[in-house]
Amino acid sequence: MTTNPELRKKVDAVLDTFIKDFYETVPFAQHQKNSAELNLDYYKRHNIETILRLRRKRTVDALAIKYFTKVDPVQAKAWAHYTDDEMLHDRLFAADLAKVGVTKDQIYSTEPLLSTKLLTGYLQFGMEFEDSPLALITSVYFVEYVTTRTQPEWLDNLGTVLGEENVKGARAHVNTDLDDDHDDFVWRVLSTLIKSEADEQKVIEHLNHIYWLWKLYFVELHQLTVVGKSDAQIPLPTAADV
After folding, report:
1. What sign for the dihedral angle of Cα 119, 90, 111, 150?
2. Measuring CA to CA, which residue among 103, 170, 178 is closest to residue 145?
3. 114: closest CA among 22, 241, 232, 27?
4. I need a surface site. Which of 49, 60, 163, 186 has the fewest CB within 10 A?
5. pTM tops 0.85
């Protein structure tokens, strides 16, 4: 049974508007979803960045487990189990990249994009300076919700273009999220952190900040791999974009 169903309905509606806005306003947003001729540079770097983001997020997950051990051991155990499920999913994406000629050395020697550093830093700021996993757990709910509602379509197209065998890793990652109802699980954990109207407002604030950072990531990815500009030339989203 969903805890705090009215807030979840509100949050999900916000996320639905983000998905719509993403497809309508971000350059190349529908490329992996619809294109019959895939830009391999874009595809490769997107998956490399996914791996680099996962590797850095697990450090922040460890900080969240530490927090929960002090205030809520039940959630510490739950988040440790979830983190265990997700811990090595970078290997799934690395296996897909190997099939298009990207080696592990190439992946792990790549400098993360500025947007990836900013997103990781935002989540770590919440843990280190606010002593709260609220930003992190909100971000994970954001990712679980959006992933399960967008990635199956992307992978259907990528499977057609690249061959289903070549997207087995990404497919396994998404199927884990779907089969284990990760969005429901993450919502339950998030609900334990929401104790007031101010906390509810903070969740909405985090959602907007996280979406801003995700838009920045896809703009940066497009600029780097398609347009061919450096990160110093990226146009930042305006306040109207969030």
Report:
1. negative
2. 178
3. 232
4. 163
5. yes
